[in-house]
Amino acid sequence: MFERTTSLAGCLDAGGRDGAEGGRRLRIGEVRGTSLVQVGTWTEVHAACAAALARVCGCDPPASPRVATDRDAHRLYRIAPDQWWIATHDEALPATLEREIGAAGGAVTVLSDARVRLAIDGVAAKALLSRLVPLDLRDAAFPVGAFAQTGVHHAPALLDRIGAARYDLYVLTTYAVSTWEWTLDQALPFGYDVVVTAAADRSRPMNSTTRDSR
Amino acid sequence: MSERYSALALARHALTGAPWPRAWRRADPRPHYDVVIIGGGGHGLATAYYLAKNHRVTRVAVLERAVIGSGNVGRNTTLVRSNYLLDGNTQFFEHSLRLWEGLSHELNFNVMLSQRGQVVLAHGPAQLDVLARKGNVMRLNGIDAELLDRGEVQRLLPYLDFSAHSRFPIHGGLLQRRAGTVRHDAVAWGYARAASGLGVDIVENCEVTGFLRDGDRVIGVETTRGRIGADRTAISVAGHTSQVAALAGLRVPVESHLLQAFVTEPIKPFVDHVISFGAELFYISQSDKGGLVFGGHIDGFNSYTQRGQFPKVQTVAECAVALIPSISRLRLLRHWAGIQDMTPDGSPFIGRTPLRDLFLNGGWCYQGFKATPAAGWCFAHTLAHGEEHPLIEHLSLERFLAGNGHDEYGNGLWTYRQ
Amino acid sequence: MLRIPCPHCGERDYTEFRYGGDASKPRPAHDERDVRAWHDHVFVFANPRGPHREYWQHVQGCRQWLILERDTATNTVGAARLARDGAGA
Amino acid sequence: MSRGPQRLAHGGRIDRDRPIRCDFEGRPLEGFAGDTLASAMLASGIAIVGRSFKYHRPRGLFAAGVEEPNALVTVGEGGRTTPNLPATTLELRAGLRARRQNGWPSVTIDLGAMNGWLAPLLSAGFYYKTFMGPRRGSWMTYEPFIRRAAGLGRAVHERDPDRYHARHAFTDVLVIGAGPAGLAAALAAAAAGAEVLLVEQDPALGGALLAAPVTGPLEHWRAQLEAAVRATPTIEVLTRTTAIGVYDGRTVALLERHDHAAPDPERGAARETVVTLRARAIVHATGAFERPLLFADNDRPGVMLASAARTYLNRYAVAPGRRALVATCTDAGWLTALDLAAAGTAVTIVEQRDEVAPPLADAARGAGIEMHTGATVARALGARAVAGALVEPLAGGRGRRIDCDLLCVSGGWSPALHLTSHTGRKPRYHPELDAFLPGDWAAGDFGAGALVGAYSPPAAYASGLAAGRAAAAFSGHARAGRTPPAPADVDEPTTFATALAPPRHGRGRTFVDLQNDVTLKDVALAHAEGYGAVEHLKRYTTLGMGTDQGKTSNVNAIAMLASLDRRGIGETGTTTFRPPYTPVSVGALAARNLGRHFRPIRRSPLERWHLANGATMIEAGPWLRPWFYAWAGADVGSAYLEEMRLVRGGVGICDVSSLGKIDVQGPDAAEFLNRVYVNGFAKLAVGRARYGVMLNDDASVLDDGTTARFSERRYFMTTTTAQAGEVMSWLEFLLQTAWPELRVHVVSVTDAWAGMSVAGPRAREALERALPGVDVSNEALPHMGVREVALDGIPLRVLRLSFSGELAYELYVPANHGIALWEHLLDRGAPLGIKPYGLEALASLRIEKGHVAGLELDHRNTLDDLGLGKLAAHDKSYVGRALRARPALQAEDRWSLVGLECLDAGARLRGGSILFAAGDAIAGHGRGYVTSVTFSTVLGRTIALGLYQGGLRHRGEEIVCAFPLKDETVRARIVSPVFVDPEGTRLHV
Questions:
Q1: Is D170–A155 a contact, with Cβ atoms under 8 angstroms apart?
Q2: Which of the four, B147, B313, D371, D870, has the lowest number of CB atoms within 10 Å?
């Protein structure tokens, strides 16, 4: 009865456009079906929460604030000294985390509907992103696996490099249409195809990258 | 010694080749003055002029660290206006505008007051109500103001973005026809020449390094050119208020911020009014030389560097194009930053300080230039009489202690709430 | 462009941050009722020309409030630490 | 094909296989790929390139690069019209349409030249001395004429059809300038292991080497360097890219130009791109500008910098004249003379020095060049073009006339230290070079080449190597690597700087600043009047303030000042150079942040439904919100009344998703809320909500909203739409700086939930129909009660609270289910007549109920002013409490919240009206003002909220509301701000 729709529902039939540089050098789209959970801890329960997180997700939460860790469907980001994000296509995970982290004394906030996950893929991905985010995207500074919280056109966003030419961008839901239109506008010279994928489409969806776009 | 300026005098000099005299005397500091004013900017020089002119106090020195007019009076966007809301501000800035209106004649120096009118835009009904309140207050105080609807703004300023692309459509505006621009450098030079003609010593390259004290009384200053005694000492050093006040052991409610200004290459007349965007802080006008002059918000952190950050340059350009799309093709020629005193309520301080015979004029935020004549006028009164002129009674240094903040724009703590 | 070394996220443009003013003034205790104490805290600034210790929040990053050392005469940026690891002076 | 009478048959870097025809003032102008508009004009024999700013004197090409002061042209048509572009920087391309400017009726015959006769009147700063009479305000009569006379080109008000981009970049070492020093630096830095970005404003690499003959050893070396650079993958080369500004943190703004090709905005091609580059280290290799010699009538067409003449000759294969006179004081002039002679031009050299190095003199003699040493030019002869020069011996004695149609000047070099000045480094004068060089270098900044006085190619190369290595080391790369190719067989003269003889004061005018028509006499006048400080001189005479920013005039003016003051140039100092280095399009700075994308739009998750169902949207801060719906009327004025009636009489539904929403969790959450809200939150029970107000430290009201408690450790806070971000940062500030001991997490969940308010006497019925199985009875869910339920497995938060004063519920559902729930509520409520209502009705309903909102919450108002003082707890501390006690904030006659009821039923009251007591004179600031107005459908008249001196102590009094902007006054009565249901019975049914 209750249909789930995303903020971009009306935007994704754009198809694609050829750019001034010739052809379509990007695939841009939405990744649907990602659940997103934020976990917060306090000093005295930090270890317990980390342990619970490791147990539930099957991998240790990253100590590094720059590189995510992942296991199966789950990808973990340390977004603040005492906070993690867990992105997953396992729809049951938020409830599990609420239970387990709650028991360990931490705080859980489900943000699945608070962010829209965009994917930018292709040979021109880095060039496009250099127009969107003020980050050092050179391989040494931002290798595959790295992520960063930053801003895209005045709105906060999390950029995750999940492949050599594949970047995912988590943007605030209420800014998503604006960010989407902004991204396509900036992508025009490179040419693009609009694609929609499901987070659960692949066995290791968070690591997937389209090899043909290298 | 100062020769009267006129078209006739110009013609005489042109024909005879006779040299023009110096605009202001080069003065060396004397050991003692009735009043020593620290700061040879617009405010300091105006204060000196009105001390001599209105109060016959002529044993006055203006001490300038570099050369006169090298601070904010030469680094602003030259706007003058009296569209103010709050009781006290309205009268003060109207007094200032009236002084501006007579200033070229008063000083015999053309400061080129151009009353081309300022339009402040509203981008929604609520914003227009706020402007209406201000316009009504102006009318009720005898100040010209007109409320414009969208169509009226479009007739007056057809080149603004009235298209369907506009992110913040124009809903209306408030026009003050008497508002306009002034040739900013001329203000410093004109006051300097007139004050000098009345006997004021303008001492350049003279930096104050300390205050001479007799208990809680200030009796003069220590400078790079020696000690100078004074019955009364005035600080008028926009941008450096905290630094100079600190020499007297005072801490003040001021933080120094960068405010950038911008000018394009000169072009034939393109914008005939002063226009203030309503969606973000941005204002634009065209100088008589032809450059479009514009500015925006402070850079957002305290600094004394007098240079701006590049992202703010981009932000201001975005506002310019959002307001006037055709400006896109014009080229920015120069941008620079002034050091601006920011205060918690956006209003300045003029008057006495906790130290006897030490007076302060500072904290002007965005409005120092347009206030120049009235600030000089009122500060001179204060220095001559030892107590505040009625027009500035609401601008005391201690007002926050009593809860008398004077927040013209309703923005709260200006210094970092942006 | 100021580049601020966020202890969590690394060096970033200052545009990702929000300036929060002088961090060297200790905040009065929550139940302090003395008007002068709060007045001085809220309204009075040292505003030095030179080294300055100040708050910035990485609003577009980890949302942490930082204490940054910066020279206001040169805009030279020094070290930053998390405010929660120990507030100002 | 010759492409112009002055085009040489051979040589140059032009591509003779690619002829180009463009449009010059309606006539075809021909040239080749590789030409600039200037070189094509020169080849075609166009001598007058513009008219001067003030005196409208004819001017010719003076330079060959960005420093050109004279040849400013207007390019393009319609929205692409671009004034004031130096022809010397415009690459010739098909489709280019250019015209000269500042002449009427034309540049060739310009009546404005009559200004020249008035020159004695139009001395520096003349306008400060006149135009003041006869009356105050007379300036306004003169100003339009001045304004029309001023300004260079003419701009249009059409929209610019082109695109501009902006991007970010990072590099280890930035090298600015691809002359010999820059090329060497880039190669050295790359060899040390650094990533290098090499930027060059010119389309080609080589800098000054591009002016050398294409068959000589210098070109061979240049080609070697270029090949090495191109073959190094870690060097990224950006040509046609200018470093326009250097900012703090070694951030450099670059401008990439793409307009050498025809624009294609439809497919996303940009005309220009601004790059914000952060570099670990910078090598400045920006070169130097040649300095002109000054003499009377030095502005005649045909007077040209010697380096420019050499560039036109060797790079563009254009003979800049048939009979050349080269006036010089350095070896640079001799290079030009030799090259001109080799191309068959008759050449005379006038050298200020008594002797030059023998190889030069021998070469000149061998080339048949006539030489005059120890002499200088006193005056250029000719009217509309140079016809000769008056040459005088420096030692004294009679001068003689030498005929020429090209007068090359070479007065030494001024390093291009603009960029190094941008970050506040003061230039320092070096008398041995007669030049200002960059002052103290900042850590990470390095200089090379002519910029640091290493003028000759071998010296530039050596300094480039050193700077490149040092920069790489600073960026953390110090690998030993290959040394780039050194110049072989390059036997260049090395004396590029000598002391300059003072200008000759003959008859006629000597121009220091060609673009702004500033003469030596103006400088002397300004000095005599006391404007002798460099900054004063600049402002008084406008010297150096043109579009060329004084690149060829600055040092000559300072030298003049110094001689007037009888002191050194170093003591006189220099002006501050400001960014940008060369003018930059405002459009490029704005990039794509324009039109709808000027700022992002925040959208409700329900927006698609609104747009599909007749909503008219309105901007509310960053948000777009439904203003009113078509079902209720065609315009807002009628629609909102219909929507209000719906809510007061039945049930309506309103999108409140924009409210700020914050998840507050933790063991200390109750204590935290109790500290930030003025009212008590410590004892709020689970399942209940409470309205709260927050203050700033200065006691002004920060925000209000409702916070609900869903569990022992979990709260759901709502804020106003406008203050959501502010509140979030403030809460984080308090938790992280003031109270780090509190175990609380705050997370913004504004985007996570769609919010909708179901309001009206039939709201409960609507919910009962929509949420079967959820007990929403008054007992189960009383006013300010909250419930978490699930609907079809979807979590749903139901908060019974009211903004409108009616029985109302706020429902929150995960954003992606928002539309489904909204449609479900409309569907199930259809039999009850449920319909959506918009922002105007929402705002009006709250006025009827006396709730304060944005127009009342403006930082000037205290809790008490808003009638909320009674909320504040007495038995606890809260943020802002101490400063709230200040006497002026507690004064009884403060302006505080009142309701206003219009006494005349048909009268219109406007927001922003000023309030007066009956009998007051209608003047001054009044006793208050109207904040919010609406027509009350319940009361059948206009009502308002306002702030009034003394507030409700004046309840029942009749007052006057003045709106002088429309000459209106309206009578009103002060009443309670709660117009509807003051007892609140409707809330508790």
A1: no
A2: D870
pLDDT digits (tens, 9 = 90+) for D62-79: 999 999 999 999 999 999
The list of chain B residues with pLDDT below 70 reads: 1, 414-418
- pLDDT at position D490: 65
- Are residues D987 and D936 in contact, defined by beta-carbon separation less than 8 angstroms? no
Please report residues of D whose CB lies closer than 8 A to that of A40: 665-666, 745, 747
What is the ipTM score, two decimals?
0.96
CATH code at B175? Answer: 3.30.9.10
Low-confidence stretches of chain D (pLDDT < 50) are 1
> Which CATH number characterizes residue C55's domain?
3.30.2270.10
The predicted pLDDT at position D107 comes to 81
Partners of chain A (3+ Cβ pairs below 8 A)? C, D
Subunit contact C8:A150, Cβ cutoff 8 A: no
The pLDDT assigned to A13 comes to 78
Fold classification of A35-112 (topology level): Alpha-Beta Plaits (3.30.70)
Closest CA to B265 of D145, D85, D22: D85
Q: Which residue has the tokens 């621009």?
A: B181
Chain D environment of C35 (Cβ under 8 Å): 882-883, 885-886
Rounded CA gap, D906 and D140, in Å? 45
Residue B102 belongs to a domain: no
CB distance A141–D170 less than 8 Å? Answer: yes
Question: Helices B372-385 & B42-55, crossing angle to 10 degrees?
Answer: 50
Q: What residues of C are in contact with residue D737 (Cβ under 8 Å)?
A: 23, 27, 55, 65, 83-84, 87
Provide the pLDDT confidence category of residue C89 given band limits of 50, 70 and 90: very low
Q: What is the average per-residue pLDDT within A91-118?
A: 96
D637 burial via Cβ count (<10 Å: 0-12, 13-18, 19+): exposed
Q: Does D422 touch chain A (CB under 8 A)?
A: no
Site from A31, A174, A175 to mutate, D interface, most D CB atoms within 10 angstroms? A174
Nearest residue on chain D to A39, judged by CA atoms? Answer: D745
Q: What are the contacts of C10-14 at 24+ separation with CB within 8 A?
A: C10/A65, C10/A66, C10/A148, C12/A134, C12/A135, C12/A150, C12/C58, C12/C61, C13/A134, C13/B311, C14/B301, C14/B309, C14/B311, C14/C56
D146 touching B (Cβ < 8 Å): yes
**CATH 1.20.1050.10 describes domain A9-33+114-201:** no
C34 and chain A in contact, CB less than 8 A: no
What value does the mean pLDDT of chain A take? Answer: 90
A10 → closest Cβ in D596, D608, D667: D608
- Structural domain that includes position B300: 114-180+256-339
- D182-220: b (≥16 Cβ within 10 Å) or e: bbbbbbbbbbbbbbbbbbbbbebbbbbbbbbbbeebbbb
Residue in chain C closest to A147 (alpha carbons) equals C9
Q: Is residue B261 a part of any domain in this protein?
A: yes
